[in-house]
TrEMBL record:
Pfam families for the chain: MTPAP-like_central, PAP_assoc
Any one annotated GO CC term: TRAMP complex
Name the UniProt record assigns to this protein: polynucleotide adenylyltransferase
InterPro entries reported for this sequence: MTPAP-like_central, NT_sf, PAP_assoc, Trf4-like
Lineage top rank: taxon: Eukaryota
Gene3D superfamilies assigned: 1.10.1410.10, Beta Polymerase, domain 2
A GO term, aspect molecular function: metal ion binding
UniProt record, GO biological process: negative regulation of macromolecule metabolic process; polyadenylation-dependent ncRNA catabolic process; RNA 3'-end processing
Presence of the UniProt keyword Metal-binding in the record: yes
Catalytic activity, EC: 2.7.7.19
Family: Belongs to the DNA polymerase type-B-like family.
Domain PAP-associated: 383-441
Species lineage: Eukaryota, Fungi, Dikarya, Ascomycota, Pezizomycotina
Region (Disordered): 1-68, 114-136
Length: 533
């Protein structure tokens, strides 16, 4: 009727009972609850002009043993699928965070601070789906298209896009508008100088405490991961590794090898006031990489300490080289990290993908885009183009079940045909990225929720594309383009930075005079209705 070659909605008959099983848990219970409630309410008189009830006005379903089909939800689901299908194009056909720390632990034993005399108990981590689901009837298709935002990041009525300038400059070029907003977002989340100094001070305080301990003489504390690479978000954990003199000389581990030594070290750190004695510290004893986890008392930042393992340090040279080779990489990494963080899909422990895997995905895309290394991309729109290319590649085109990624030299491999050639064990239902520094290591082997991650990328691409079209047509309800995928409650960032600023000014009063006052303070976090653009 509208001339489209593809129908807007699918035929109700195309949906089988099996196709309805993918909806949110509790939907069937909620549906039954609605029917029972409808049966109890008996209206006095049915108005002749009322709209028909889709549950009662439609012809009766055929007799079957299956549950009653919800027509409203079926139509809603068909519309959502159609929107997703329209966003995807040109799928890749036959495309021929353990660094050791970015992997899912084979066995995890978590010993709390008050369990010194108890046996280690295996932990069952809360998956990303827990504590973030709402009733399906309360979620619009837009809310779920790019994944469900966790409760911590749920909008609370305040400004959802604190990176937007108070007086946004008008531009009719939507590509330029997206590029500028990405720049503003990165300026909002990128590391500041005082944050770097305060984070380094955490490592210094811990090293001094350990070296003053009899069993820790000569032990060095090194930072690895996102902090030394400058690729961290404001609330990022601090990843530290303790290396003994003997390990540094001959790679023979001697420090904190057993549980008794780790308990003693925990007591030493507690006595020195490194962490809050009430909150305590956890010993993850039998993971592939044993850790002591705690929250730093001064800064409130989370800290992980591992022992006698240099693998994470080896990757620092690789990250430095990639940053020099691809100057756009840090900006893309910040966007993707924040996007996954808001959906609790950035933790390998919970089945998501860690920071190093995110970096590898970004770098791999740039490696296979010659134009990203030249001036062929329009400089005033390049960030927007790169973001959309990333979401489209991993959301619509890349097939992780068939294809693996090799970082050095940049290439892909067929996970079925090249199994004998690739010297690494991998699983077909997970993302596979060969460690650039260890050819026998799959850095993304713990990505058991990779399908959900890539589905979120797919939905994000569709939402951003639609927002660009709305702005182009003058129909957008907001000046922000990124709000549709990154809008949320950013008070935790502003609060953390305010705390780190106070620590910096207290511990480094002389240096504080030479660091300009940051604009990103909690006072900027005002309701949207009071912001001027």
């Amino acid at each position: 009727m509208n001339g489209d070659t593809q129908p807007k909605f699918r035929d109700v008959g195309e949906y089988t009972e099996e196709s309805d099983t993918g909806s949110e848990e509790g939907e069937e219970h909620e549906e039954g609850h609605k029917r029972r409630r409808t049966e109890k309410v008996v209206p006095i008189e049915q108005p002749k002009w009322s709209n028909p009830d889709p549950y009662t006005a439609l012809p009766p379903p055929s007799q079957s043993n299956g549950p009653k089909k919800d027509i409203v939800e079926t139509i809603r689901k068909a519309k959502l699928d159609t929107m997703l299908d329209a966003a995807s194009s040109n799928p890749v056909k036959d495309n021929i965070d353990f660094i050791s720390f970015d992997d899912e632990p084979a066995v995890v034993s978590l010993l709390s601070d008050n369990d010194d005399d108890q046996a280690s108990v295996g932990s069952n981590p809360i998956g990303p789906g827990k504590n973030r689901k709402r009733a399906y009837s309360q979620i619009s298709p837009d809310d779920t298209l790019a994944g469900i935002i966790t409760e911590e990041w749920e909008p609370t009525g305040y400004n959802l896009t604190p990176w937007m300038p108070r007086s946004a400059e008008f531009t009719a070029n939507v590509g330029l508008k997206l590029h500028k907003e990405i720049v503003d977002f990165y300026e909002f989340v990128r590391p500041t100088e005082y944050e770097r100094i305060v984070r380094q001070d955490i490592a210094t305080r811990i090293q001094t405490t350990i070296q003053n301990w009899y069993h820790g003489r000569g032990v060095q504390i090194y930072c690895f991961g996102s902090y030394p690479a400058g690729l961290y978000l404001p609330n990022a954990d601090m990843d530290l590794v303790a290396l003994s003199p003997r390990y540094l000389d001959s790679a023979v581990p001697t420090f904190c090898l057993g549980m008794p030594d780790k308990r003693k070290l925990r007591s030493v750190l507690r006595s020195a006031g490194i962490f809050d004695p009430v909150k305590g510290a956890d010993i993850i004893a039998f993971a592939k990489v044993p850790l002591i986890k705690f929250t730093d008392l001064q800064t409130g930042l989370k800290v992980d300490i591992s022992f006698e393992n240099h693998t994470g340090l080896t990757a620092q040279g690789t990250l430095k080289k990639w940053k020099e080779q691809f100057p756009d990489m840090p900006i893309l990494v910040a966007l993707i990290k924040q996007f996954l963080c808001m959906r609790n899909l950035n933790e390998v422990f919970h089945g998501g993908i860690g920071g190093f895997t995110i970096i590898c995905l970004v770098v791999s895309m740039l490696q296979h885009m010659p134009e990203s290394q030249s001036s062929s991309l329009e400089p005033h729109t390049r960030y927007g183009e790169l973001l959309m290319n990333f979401l489209d590649l991993y959301g619509n085109k890349f097939n992780y079940r068939d294809t693996g990624i090799i970082m050095e030299p940049p290439s892909y491999f067929d996970k079925l045909k090249d199994r004998d050639r690739i010297n690494v064990k991998y699983q077909d239902d997970r993302l596979t990225i060969i460690d650039p520094n260890r050819a026998d290591n799959d850095i993304s082997g713990g990505s058991r929720l990779i399908a959900e991650v890539f589905d979120c990328f797919r939905g994000a691409h569709a939402l951003v594309q639609r927002r660009l079209n709305q702005i182009r047509l003058g129909k957008a309800s907001s000046e922000s383009i990124l709000e549709c995928i990154l809008g949320g409650n950013y008070y935790s960032y502003l609060d953390t930075r305010a705390r780190l600023r106070r620590v910096f000014e207290r511990n480094y009063p002389d240096s504080a005079e030479h660091v300009p006052a940051e604009e990103l303070q909690p006072s900027m976090y005002v309701p949207s209705s009071r912001r001027r653009y």
